[in-house]
Amino acid sequence: MNRREILARVGEAVEESSAEEIDWAAVSEETTVESFGFDSLAVLDLIFDLKQEFGVQIPVEEMLAMKTTGDLVTYLQNHAS
Amino acid sequence: MMAAHEPQSLCRVAVSGLGLVTPIGVDEETVWANLLAGRSGLAPLDDFDLPGNEVLNGGAVDMGPLDALQTGKLRRADRTVRFAVEASRQALAGAGLLAEASPDEASSMGTIWGCGCGPAGTLYQSHRRFAAKGPSGMRPSTVPNCMANSVSAVVSIRYRLEGTNQVVVSACTSGSNAIGLGFRAIRHGYADRVLVGGVDAFFDPFYYGVWNNLGVLSTITPAAQAVRPFAADRAGTLMGEGAAALVLESMESAERRGVRVRGEVVGYGETSDATHLTSPSVDGPARAIRAALADVATEERVRGEQIALINAHGTATPLNDLTESQAIRSALGAAADGALVSANKSFFGHTLGAGGAIESVVTLLSLEAGMAPPNLNLERQDPACEVALVGGEPTRLAGEFAIKNSFGFGGGNAVLVFRRPAGG
Questions:
Q1: How many helices (H) and strands (E) does chain A have?
Q2: Three-class SS state of B194
Q3: Per-residue pLDDT for B393 more than 90?
Q4: Which of B67, B141, B145 is the best mutation test for A, with the most CBs of A within 10 A?
Q5: Which domain holds residue A63?
Q6: Is residue A26 one of the residues assigned to a domain?
Q7: Is residue A25 in some structural domain?
């Protein structure tokens, strides 16, 4: 799976969890995770959704440390089986 | 004994803000105009996926105004949450408290909501997901999103209401119970202001379907003519969705702030039939009406003759309207002849936990305007229902007091006594 495909699948999960209206077409790997407006509960939902989608369990502290969607894509690319 | 329980320390309770999200409008002015014009909100439920039901008519809220105001996660929230947040916004704005209760400035106000079904749409979708994916497929947010108290929780967070935060679950009396509890909290000095309300939204295949099969829905068409409270040819109710919110505060607080007082809550009575889950009684509601009148503070004691309006539970089922009429007659005696009975479910449908709150707001608007909205579809009154009904046109009200009846499955009965605002 290439980075663009991963980003698209991440987008579906993010849209369901975010407190903000997200124009995913405008999201790039430079978009900050902070801009999605996650609260702690939404972070748990996103981790859950990503595990369902990619089979990757992201530790909460690692998720909170991610700055951009590019960081998230890299993590998933490195850990997906 | 706590000072708060001493009779001489009772606070008068003002209503200083009103909010409405209903099938005939999502603001006070539109709702009142449609009530006076006799425009029902009952119509085919075309916007909902409800296959397999005999009756597909009801009172649905136009989501357009809410969509324009609500964004992000709130826009995707359960309809009960969206309705309650909007009704709260209106009520807080009307009371001049929206800025004070903004996320930047916490408020000591509490919030109490009545909700009969909980977040029904979210529960339905969650159960579908569970059936498809099992426990390992359930998102962590399922727990808070499915809580029966999700409505008061979200309202409390959104408007930073740091006082009590709870939901009353008592079927069709939920909204009136919530108002009654807020009234008592202020009256006895436990709180200075409480945002109270009622809400329900349950046009999902499960909840709507089971109501269909209970045999209480009217099959009369068109929908606007289906609900006929106290009429000889009444044939049941239709379901509705919506919410209403009221800011209750001590009269002293309202007068100090110089806010417009929309009316006063002066009494609250609650009883249980303690007989049957669904079959209504005469005794339980009659005791609740007497209890509500007896609850009015001694110096303002209300006699039956002073009641200008009874906003009935009035479901338009054959049994409810008969037993409610008998309960009114039992509680008020000959004074029932002078108290006009108005039933709003021909406009809204039966909004369950929202009903007591929506219809309480209508009661307050009626007292304020000195005008009762019409009873729709009342061509011929059931002679067995011996009450003085408002007719098919808006009717002038003479007195300053009104009562609101709510009776619920499970046997609960809640009755509120309202007084029109001074100078009204």
A1: 4, 0
A2: strand
A3: yes
A4: B141
A5: 3-20+31-79
A6: no
A7: no
Which residue has 């999200």 as its token pair? B21
Just give the CATH number of B3-419.
Answer: 3.40.47.10
**Angle between helices A3-17 and A40-54 in degrees, nearest 10:** 140
d(Cα B207, Cα B58) in Å, to the nearest integer? 13
Residue B9 is encoded by which pair of tokens? Answer: 């320390």
- Among B33-42, B296-305, B333-342, name the one with the lowest average pLDDT: B296-305
- What does the H/E/C string look like for B87-144? HHHHHHHHCCCCCCCCCCCCECCEEEEECCCCCHHHHHHHHHHHHHHCHHHCCCCHHH
Give the total number of structural domains in chain A: 1
* pTM to 2 decimal places: 0.94
CA pair distance B255, B355, nearest whole angstrom: 29
Q: What angle do CA B28, B33, B37 make, to 5 degrees?
A: 150
CATH number of the domain at A43, please. 1.10.1200.10
Check CB contact of B423 with chain A, cutoff 8 Å: no
With 60 as the cut, is the pLDDT of residue B9 above it?
A: yes
Measured between beta carbons, the chain B residues lying within 8 angstroms of A44 are: 140-141
With an 8 Å Cβ cutoff, the interface of chain A facing chain B consists of 17-21, 37, 41-42, 44-45, 48-49, 52
Ranges of chain A whose pLDDT falls below 70? 19
Distance from CA of A45 to the nearest CA of B (A): 6
The closest of A56, A75, A57 to A65, measured between CA atoms, is: A75
Asked if the model's pLDDT at residue B320 lies above 80, the reply is: yes
pLDDT at B1 over 60: no
**Is B71–A44 a contact, with Cβ atoms under 8 angstroms apart?**
no
Instruction: Give residues 63 to 82 of B whose Cβ lies within 8 Å of A.
Output: 71-73, 75
| Mean pLDDT taken over chain B | 94
Q: What are phi and psi of B395, to 5 degrees?
A: -130, 135
User: pLDDT for B88-134, tens place per residue?
Assistant: 999 999 999 987 655 566 688 999 999 999 999 999 999 999 999 99
Q: Rounded to a whole number, what is the distance in Å from the CA of B142 to chain A's nearest CA?
A: 9
ipTM entry: 0.86
Write out the catalytic residue numbers of B: 172, 313, 350
For residue A50 the two structure tokens come to 């990503």
The reply to whether omega before B222 is within 30° of 0 (cis) is: yes
Q: Name residue A3's amino acid.
A: R
Two tokens, residue A77: 């690319």
The domain spans of chain B are 3-419
Instruction: Tell whether the torsion through CA atoms of B266, B317, B151 and B114 is positive or negative.
Output: positive
CA distances from B323 to B260, B280, B304, B312, B317 (A): 37, 7, 19, 11, 10
